[in-house]
Design brief:
Chain lengths: 247, 405
Amino acid sequence: MLDIQNLHARIGDKTILKGLNLQLRAGEVHAIMGPNGAGKSTLSKVLAGAEDYTVTDGSVQFAGQDLLALEPEARAAAGVFLGFQYPVEIPGVSNMVFLRAAFNAQRKQRGEKELDAAEFLAWVRHRVKQMKMDPAMLSRGVNEGFSGGEKKRNEILQMLVLEPKLMVLDETDSGLDIDALKIVADGINAMRSPERATLLVTHYQRLLDYVQPDRVHVLADGRIVRSGGPELARELEEKGYAWLRAA
Amino acid sequence: MNAAASYEQAFARFLAQRPAAEQALRSEAFARFREQGFPDRSTEAWHYTDLTALAGLDVQLSTGASADATPWALEGCSTQVWVNGESAQPTSSYQVPAGYVHGGLGGLHGAFARQGLDLHLAAGESPPQPLLALCLSTADSAREMHHLAHRIRLDRGSRAIVILREAGLGEGTRWITRSLEIDLADGAELTLLRVQEETAATTQWFQGTARLQRDARLHLVTVDLGGALARNDWRIRLAAPGAQAQIHGLFAPTGRSHVDNQIEIEHAAPHTTSREVFRGLGFERSRAVLNGRVVVRPGAAKTDSEQRIASLMLSKQAEINAKPELEIYADDVKCAHGATFGQLDRNAIFYLRARGVPEATARGLLTCSFANEVLGQIAHEGLRTQVARVLLQRLGVGADLGLSA
C-alpha cells in the first residue's frame, strides 16, 4: 500500500531524511520509533504534504499513485490521514462544521455524494460516543480550549469520521493519561482492517502495549537503521537508543 | 453648474418642503456648511480620508424610491424601514443633532437630514424584541444624496437591543450621511449592532455619539462590509462613574473600497471602563484606517481601558493603517493597547488541507475564525450567519459552509 524508496527531505537547508526506505502492506500496523531529531515528524509531514519540507530525492507510492505529486487535500481524499502531534486550534469554527467540510470535501474530490447536515450528524454521533467525548464538543470551536489529551482524542475522532486507508499517527500517545491512552488505542484498533494500514510514530513503547504492531522500525539520523517484530520496541524501552548509535 | 450651486439648489428645494419650525435650524446648519465646506487632509483626523472631491459633485436629492426590504429583514425583530432616508411610517419631529466632529460636514448633515429612528424608552422599559432599523439606499441616477439622523434615548434602567442595518441596492453613485445620537441614563443598557453593506458606488459618512451616565452600559458591534468610501466617527463619553463601553469592530473592505473608522472614547469620570476589540481584513486593493483614541480626563481615576486591534492582510495590495492612541490626564488608571498585523497561519492551513479541505476553503474558514471574536458578538444568529457568508463569499468559499453547526 505504501512504498517509500530512498526518501530524502529537507527543511530550509537542513537535510532531515537521508535515504529512508519503508514498505507497508494493507492490513499492517508498523511503529516507527527513534530518538528526538531523528526525522519521525518530518516523515509524517512529508507523507501528508506539508509545504515547509522539500523532497530532494526518492519516491513515495501510495496505492499505486505517486503520492508526492498530490496536493495535501488530494492525499487526504486518496485516503492518507495524518494525526498531528500538535493539533491546531481554530476558534469560532465548530468541530461539526470542520468535520463536515473535511468529510464532504473528500467525498467531492472522489466523486461521491456529499452528506447533508442530518445524514452527517448521524454519521458522526456514534463515533463521538465511541471516543467517549461529550457530544456538546461538536458545537465548540475546533480544539478550542481543549487539553492536550482532548486534542489527541479529537484527532482520532476525525480519523474515525474520515475513514482513511493509511493512518499516520505522529506521537498521538504523547500527553495522554492512561485512560485517554486506552480510548485512543481502542479507536486505532477499531480502524484496523485488511484494507487499511497504520504507521504509528512514537517515542515510547507505552502505546504499543495497546496497539500491537506487526513491525517496529528504528529511525535514526534520517534513515531506518533497524527493523524487527514487536519485541524490538521492548528492547528499545529497556536499553534506550544510545546502543544503536554505538553499534 | 458649479458644486456650491448644486448643494445650494438642492437645499432651497428641500427647505421649501419642510415645516416652518425647522427652517431656521436648517438654514443655520447650511450656513456652517457653506462657510466650512468639506474636511481636507490638513487636519490629522482626516489624514487618510479626503472628502474634498464631494464639493465638486453635481448632487441631487434622492427621490423617495421604493425598495424590497425582504432580503435584509431579520427574524424576530420589530422593524422600521427607511429607503433613501425616507420612511413609510410617520416619524417624530426633526431635531438638529448636537455636536459634530467637523463643522462643515455636520452643517451639511444638519441642513438636510430627515428624522430616522427615534427610540425613547421610559425608565425600566425593556422591549421583548430587538429593534431593527433598516436603512436602504437605491439610486436611479448618479450623484444622488440623502441624509438621515437617528436618536436613541434610554431612561434609567431601561434596556434595548437595536440593529442598525445599512444596505445599498442599484448601480448609481450616491452620497449618504447618517448620524446617531445615544443617551443612556443611569443603569441603562444598549446593545447596538451596526452592519454597513453599502454598494461600491457609495460615499458614506456616519457619526455616532453616545453619552453614558452612571452604571450605563453600551455594547457596540460595528461591521463595515461595503462602500466605495465609508467614514465612521464615533465619540463615546463615559460621563459618570460605573459607565462601561464595549466595542467589537470588524472592517472588511474589498475591491478598491476605503473604510476609515475613528473611534474616540472619553473617560470623563472615575471608575469607568472601556473595552475595544477590532478585527480588520484587507481584501484586494482596499484600504482601511482605524484610529482608536482613548482620552482620560483629569479626575477620571480608576479608569480601566483596553484596546486590541488585529488585522489580517489577505492581499498584497491591501493596506490597513491601524493605531491606538492614548491621552491620559489622570493618575491611577489602567490603559492597555495593542495592534498587530499578520497573515494566516501556514500550519493551520496545512492542518485543514491535510483533512481534505481545499486551500481556498481552508483560508475561508481560518479567516472567519480570525474574525470570530467580533462575529461571535453579533447577538442575532441570522445576522451573524449572513455577515459570515459575505466574508466566505469574498474568500471564494461556497455559502453552504456557514459557521453555525
